[in-house]
DNA sequence: TTGTCGGCCGATCGCCGACAA
DNA sequence: TTGTCGGCGATCGGCCGACAA
């Protein structure tokens, strides 16, 4: 699982988890460990994201060494300091309603989505996005209405139904360097969508 | 789980199962056992029926004793020799098609279903049936068309969808002494339906 | 007797701009 | 800027008899 997508999804809830280590009295309350590796995972059914970390007990005097010489990396070697542009929105009743579309905030459409050709009438394009499992979803992105606004129409309700999204759930749009995805979610956990960069050859109406 | 319903469902496939006991060489190939009890079970998801039997090793000379003095019973005390009228049908493409109904073979409608009042035009009634889990399903049973035939219409497609039935699956109709049920099935395993006896007060149009 | 088909009608889906918060 | 609504047209579900195997 892509580490940037994982962070975009987990960002809003990584402080909610409580881990119970069983309170075994023989183990000291605190152990200095080196984080040996991190793997980013997503539940197959709920799309809930979580991480698997391998911890190696360290001696106290090793701390400074690792701090200075070892950058924290995931098992794919990606540097965790990169933060690709992303945008999160909590689904409204209208977004989640059956038969409705998705109101795309203007900022999200202009900074995350592929560039739209506004010379068409109405301006519209097909947007491809992959979810945390690598599954590709197709949406119609249209700019219409008075006043004008960005919407996802065709493909959206199928997405909502299959991901069992309801009002209050979140969706995260993420834009990476090379074409991407969207991830839906279960139950008040964020859904992430990564979109291809503007020059993507995917979009039916996208130019430049 | 009712033992008669179980037998109606399992009847077509109880010779298909293969049990691997691991071929442990220390256990004799054959052991004379007394069947201590039988419990009839159904998988919650697939409706596949199976049985749990408690076997007690016996000495050879006990065989005749049990044969003569102990009737085989399930854990509810029901005698296994009773066989209530039942009817099985393999679903056709038309039965399983979305938007279609279920063609009820005449023999099944006349011997298993509650008696229909043929004086109405068209003759129709509501039929209630419980599945292996005790869930009640409601069907509209109508006698129409030229030539006349028995059909299940309203309620049928919902049943097919929720039970994920496809052409080739089986359904078993079973009639017991005191009101009953239907059981759907997964994947080429029989679905059973028990129906209330003719005088059932459930049916909208049923008389006598 | 009953499996499949086309017709047909009503319900739902889903796209639309209007409007207001 | 964007959430909600009523409208309305297209699609689909589902009931029907015709017909033939």
TrEMBL record, chains A, B:
It comes from the Eukaryota. It is found in: Nucleus. Residues 87-189 form the TF-B3 domain. Belongs to the ARF family. Auxin response factors (ARFs) are transcriptional factors that bind specifically to the DNA sequence 5'-TGTCTC-3' found in the auxin-responsive promoter elements (AuxREs). Homodimers and heterodimers. This is Auxin response factor. It comes from Spirodela intermedia.
